[in-house]
Amino acid sequence: MPPMLPRLTLIATSLLLASCASTGSPRRDDGARATLAILESTDVHSNVLGYDYYKLAADDSLGFERLATLVREARREFPNTLLFDGGDTIQGTALADWQARGEPLACDEKLAMYKAMDALGYDGATIGNHEFNYGLPFLAQVTATPRAAAADGARRCHGPDFPLVLSNVFDARDGTPLFAPTALLTRTIEARDAQGRTVELPIKVGIIGFTPPPIMVWDKSNLTGKVTVKGLVEAAREYVPQLRAQGADLVVAISHGGIDPGPYTADMENANWHLAQEPGIDVLLLGHSHQAFPDPGNANSRFAAMPGVDNTRGFIHGKPAVMGGFWGKSLGVVELALERRDGRWTIDTAATHSQVRSIRTADGRSVPPDPAIAEVVRTEHEATIRYVSAPIGTSDFAMTSHFASVGDVSALQPVNSAQRAYVKALVDASHPELAGIPILSAAAPFKLGFGGATDFTEIPAGTLAIRNAADLYLYPNTVAVVKTDGTGLRAWLEHAAGYFNRIDPARREPQELVDRTFAGYNFDVLQGDLRYVVDITRPRGERIVELVHAGKPVDPKQTFLVVTNNYRASGGGGFPGVDGSSTVIDAPDMNRQVLIDWIRARGNLTRANDASDRPWRFASVRTAGPVTFRSAAGKLELAQGAGLRGLRERSRDADGMATYEVDLGAP
Q1: Does 355 share its domain with 411?
Q2: Structure pTM?
Q3: Interior CA angle at 55 toward 54 and 57, to 5°?
Q4: Can you spell out the DSSP letters for 39-92?
Q5: The CATH number of the domain where 147 resides is what?
Q6: Into how many domains does the chain fold?
Q7: Alpha-carbon distance 3 to 117, whole Å?
């Protein structure tokens, strides 16, 4: 099927010169005005279709196929559009894992995600941090990037039809950029001249890409010694002037990062508040944070009171910006008002604004999917379903994350048990220097409702398949082991306990249990003959009031091995003392594969043996008012099955979520 090209068309230099010659001096076009809509997807995470491979069910709350419908609508609305992607594109679903790990993509095949994007006719994109998760050889292959291939000895294969730009990652051998830092797009746009006549005029749009510098921490095992990074501001100062020198009318920064007004550092994760202040950048397309910007309808938006940020019209330091959400749930739109001056296009900021358009309509339904997208990935979709459906064992209990924030370990203990067994065997076989040290394991509930009522793990009792293991462990991390002492262990648990808000026992008004700004994947639960008590009436850093291992209080000098993943061991999540320097084993195997192999070996999982080791509890306290948390509605039976008490459902929302109350004084 031929690609659905955008209404803007690429023109050759000869046609551009002919156009200028026929219309006379470019200055005669002064006063012409046009609207250019810059459209952005970001953090799609390979959700090509509105489909949940873990549940084997359609999910109309997300999916690139519905975002494509929004793109079509925008193209009908605006005569001039450009379409870009902000990164974190090729990883995130079972479809992505199947193509990268299950049945690796052949060199002459195009990635399903890129097939879908090419069908929609993208103009450019950048590289997100999760693009590096499968390693440089795979990234080089699917992006057909010669320099990325050379950095790891891979071949150049079949990539997308649009340019990928990245200005702040370099080949460690010679300092050359891994991807093209920038690209200059020459297009024609429909405009109105000073007399109100419709005319077609040329425009040059430069694009520059950025990824978060902490990729060197998050994907240390894939990148160390192979690439280097620069800060966003440093890279912009090197490459933006080059785009201007090439004649760019506009420079669009496609930056996979959020907005942080804190002091700038070269390794800053979300440095775009600072990037917006760099001269030469006109528009910013953002991502990574899985948030919408602007977000004027959200009274709790963190952007509302941020200095230099207009959360209504979508500006940062006077420059239009947008962050288009995640998982194909929404489309970012920057509606640029342009005016021709001295033969060049400039932005009329007073008539410019940004918005985020949701695939959800005002009545709560979703826009229909674009049928062309499902058609181009039909083969890959069906193969993924077969892949994830392969049985690996059975279970007599439901594994869920609905109540992980109040102590349910049914979705965590299997992961921790698998990780501990794997490392014990590894130590016995290859690491005699670590023999005899107690082995603990850390696992976090990856799905805690951030994306709504369907964003929870819920695996029913019965047959277990690969898709269930992938639901328990979402990310393609590899196993790592950190050596720590009792002091470090306590600090680890204290950091994880930052997931909870501080509760005032005397307050009569409802208090939220969970700090919604704290990422659920940093709420580590540690197991391995460990017991600890969390007192959330105390300030952060002082909450672990009891800590016992093997029935004895933990000695500050006692040594432990903690099994985790390469992201955490390298410093991901900012856990104290966990920065890569204390890693004693950096294993090649993926955590998810370790879990799959463990379930296969075990055969049948039981609640008594595999889901009843609850290592932590809240300190008992009576509160004058209710303490509440959010989860999917109608799930109280799951909590009761896991042995949790003192819970009740208070109210339900139309979106399928509910407010629950927890009694901190219950046993």
Answers
A1: no
A2: 0.77
A3: 120
A4: EEE---TT--SSEETTTTEE-TT--HHHHHHHHHHHHHH-SSEEEEE-S--S-S
A5: 3.60.21.10
A6: 2
A7: 9
| Per-residue model confidence as pLDDT tens digits over 62-112 | 999 999 999 999 999 999 999 999 999 999 899 998 999 888 888 889 999
Please tell me whether residues 353 and 419 are part of one structural domain.
no
From the CB of residue 277, how many other CB atoms can be counted at a distance below 10 Å?
Answer: 16
Domain that holds residue 536: 390-662
In 431-586, alpha helices (H): 466-472, 486-496, 566-569
How many residues in the chain? Answer: 667
Tokens 């941020």, residue located? 306
Please tell me the number of Cα atoms within 13 Å of 106 on its side-chain side.
3
Among 336, 360, 381, the domain-final residue is 381
Radius of gyration of the chain (CA): 26
CATH, residue 509: 3.90.780.10
Q: From 289, 628, 174, select the one nearest 303 (Cα to Cα).
A: 289
- pLDDT, one tens digit per residue, over 395-442 is 999 999 999 999 999 999 999 999 999 999 989 988 899 999 999 999
Residue 580 has a pLDDT of 84
Instruction: Tell me the mean pLDDT in the region 232-243.
Output: 98
Please give the sequence-ordered ranges of beta strands (E in DSSP) within 348-410, or none if there are none: 353-358, 391-395, 399-400
Domain ends where: 381, 398, 415?
381
Q: What is the band of 298 on the pLDDT scale with cuts at 50, 70, 90?
A: confident
pLDDT at 599: 97
Measured CA to CA, the distance from residue 481 to residue 233 in angstroms comes to 35
